[in-house]
Amino acid sequence: MTAPAFIAAVFLLLLTPGPTNTLLAVAGGSAGFRRSAHLIAAEAAGYLLTIVPLATFAGPYLAAHPIAASAIKLCSAIWVLLLAARLWTISPAGMGAPLVTFRQVFITTVLNPKALIIGLVLLPHGSLQAMLPWLGLFLMIVLTVACLWLSSGATLIGRANGEFPPLLRRIAASLLLCFSAGLAGSSLGLI
Q1: Is residue 4 one of the residues assigned to a domain?
Q2: Which residues of 66-105 are buried (b: 16+ CB within 10 A; e: fewer)?
Q3: Residue of higher predicted confidence among 44 and 152
Q4: Which of 12, 28, 76, 127 could potentially form a cystine with 154 if both were Cys, beta carbons 3.0 to 4.6 Å apart?
Q5: Which domain holds residue 83?
Q6: Residue 115 falls within a domain, yes or no?
Q7: What is d(CA 89, CA 113) in angstroms, rounded to the nearest whole number?
Q8: Which ranges does the record mark as transmembrane (predicted)?
Q9: Is residue 93 part of a domain?
Q10: Number of domains into which the chain is organized
């Protein structure tokens, strides 16, 4: 794959709405861009933790063991379902704490199916040294797209009197529920 094709493919994949992007938009909308910017590091670390091992040695294993790949998707579905439930049920009294934490973004990204696509399909396989230029490009794209999602959340969702509106929390929770159902259906071969 050429560098421009890699950049375009990764950019479009990461720009697509998903669990991590939903969390970033919610964080931007509830806490603002500057107070949520640290979540970009959580996303980058989560992707690297998943894609580097996939591209260096796990790809052949998962190809030979589809049940393991399905189990990973099912774990992702369960995690996203838990995030949706938390976002749906959080009370206004519990709103003093951030709606979205570093840990949540990190774990969601580690379990994100996009990481599987990047690590198994888009990123060239081989030694870590050979992958470094590609990982650098990847991290620049992650930074760019994460900034777009945080900015979108901060701008479009905004804050109403310093509070994240309950209706928007419920909409975000519903989106996460849909992502969870899609992941579960895919892991079980229903979709």
Answers
A1: no
A2: eeebeebbbebbebbbebbebbeebeeeeeeeebbebebb
A3: 44
A4: 28
A5: 39-187
A6: yes
A7: 25
A8: 44-64, 71-90, 102-123, 130-151, 171-190
A9: yes
A10: 1
| Amino acid at residue number 19 | P
Contact between 45 and 138 under an 8 Å Cβ cutoff? The reply is no
Residue 96: pLDDT band (50, 70, 90) is low
Q: Which two tokens stand for residue 83?
A: 């995030």
Please report whether residue 100 resides in a domain: yes
- pTM for this structure? 0.76
Report the chain's mean pLDDT, rounded to a whole number: 83
Q: Write the CA distances from 113 to 14, 117, 128, 164, integer angstroms.
A: 11, 7, 21, 28
Q: Comparing 46 with 1, which gets the higher pLDDT?
A: 46
Question: Quick count: other Cβ atoms within 10 Å of Cβ 4?
Answer: 8
Kindly state the tokens that stand for 156: 């479009």
